[in-house]
Amino acid sequence: MKTAALEQKAQRDPAQPALEQQVLKLINEDDIVALTTALVAAAGENPGGTEEATVEVLKSFSTGAGLEVATQTVAPGRPNFTAVLPGGARPGLLFLAHSDVVPAGTGWERPPFEPFVRDGRLFGRGSTDMKGGLAAVLIALKALKDAGAELPGNAALACTVDEEDLGIGIRAFTPAALANPAFSYSGCVVAEPTDLETVICCRGDSYIELKVTGKSAHSGRPVDGRNAIDAAAKILELVRADHDRLQADQDALLGSGSWSIGLIRGGTGTSMVAAECTVSLDRRLMPDDDAQLILDRLRTQISEARIDTDGISVKAAVTMEMPGFRTPEDHLLVTNSVAALADAGVSSDVTGWTAACDGGFIARDLGVPAIVMGPGGLNDQAHQVNESVSIAELVAAARAYALMCLRHNAN
């Protein structure tokens, strides 16, 4: 990523419309550091905490900036939050973020929720994932408001709870948006950390739980029982074979779907035939995959292999699904992102994510094309001890977001 020299060029380029230059000048380091600091200090560890304090910071800033704010209570102390800068009648641009952070853990140089700045970086749990992205969006919306920008359509931030665990926030947001006749957006930018690369596709994720039941017996006479662990092992052979099959078909940006065995529990004692065994599987999804169909195929394979016969029963369920998505590289949302980043001083690659994010729900449930683009590093900072984010990236992200709003559906 290139920043300083290109950033200065973006502010003085005479070819940029006067309004764009005005908006860029309104976005400054001090404001974005102050807001990010307040958001990091509000914590919101998940599991174990709530996002309420973070939402109060968002609400206070947004109200002061003249944005239209609303909340949706998802669970006690856990409100989804929206801030809208009204625009014209055209479909607008939606920014998506989340207010929770993963548990801080131990080993920090300083207390994780007492943020500080050093060597051009802001440190603290959530600085990269994703309080910095949240701050960048709101600073961009405030700059547009202060400049008196008349946008072609609404520009909005939707901030959901519980992204880091079960996703109850996004699962409440999408049906509410579908029921809202005023919801009209033709693009979504997920402000997760991408080092300001423009991510056009993400894998999804799902959890599949298996419960295998057999019959207990003395281990000296195993023939009298039906061993659930043995049966589960045969199922895992099917899973491993399917995983290997998937690896033969690699997507250039996403790789492939995959299986991972996360947890296995079974038996009650070494001298007893195991009567029960439970297995938790992680199945990563390609954008067109359906977790329920994948489970149905596994059930068929189990039956064809006659694993669930002769006293063995198998129950299986999808307990979590997060869809993937793909937006064409030549889509205006993508080209707008790359151009806006360039004018904000950043050379941005177009790439894909093997991780999952809430953008898949926006694409699948609401039919709104999505990309992921935000400040901070997913692999080297997010969920890490001594997490930090580059302040230059925060400023560049806010400027790019503002330019994207000005240009979205402008022609």
Descriptive account of the structure:
By secondary structure, the chain is of the alpha/beta class. Helices cover about 35% and strands about 25% of the residues. It has eleven helices and 16 strands. The protein has helices at about 5-10, 20-25, 30-40, 50-65, 125-145, 170-180, 230-245, 290-305, 330-345, 360-365, 390-405; strands at about 70-75, 80-85, 90-100, 115-120, 120-125, 155-160, 185-190, 200, 205-215, 260-265, 275-285, 315-320, 325, 350-355, 370, 390. The protein has a six-stranded mixed sheet with strand order 1-2-6-3-7-15, with helices on both faces. Strands 10-11-9-12 form a four-stranded antiparallel sheet, covered by helices on one side. Helix 3 (about 30-40) runs antiparallel to helix 4. The two termini are about 30 Å apart.
**Roughly what percent helix?**
25-40%
- Spatial separation of the terminal alpha carbons: 29 Å
Average pLDDT reading: 94
Strand content: 15-25%
Multimeric organization = single chain
Give the biggest sheet: 6 strands, mixed
Number of helical stretches of at least 4 residues: 11
**What class do helices, strands and sheet pairing give?**
alpha/beta
Based on CA inertia axes, which overall geometry fits? elongated
The strand order across the widest sheet is 1-2-6-3-7-15
Write down how many β-strands occur, each being a DSSP E stretch of 2 or more residues.
16
Summarize the structure.
The protein is α/β, with parallel strands linked by helices and 411 residues long. Helix content is 36%, strand content 25%. The strands form four sheets. It has a six-stranded mixed sheet with strand order 1-2-6-3-7-15, with helices on both faces. A four-stranded antiparallel sheet has the order 10-11-9-12, with helices on one face. The protein has a three-stranded antiparallel sheet with strand order 4-5-16.
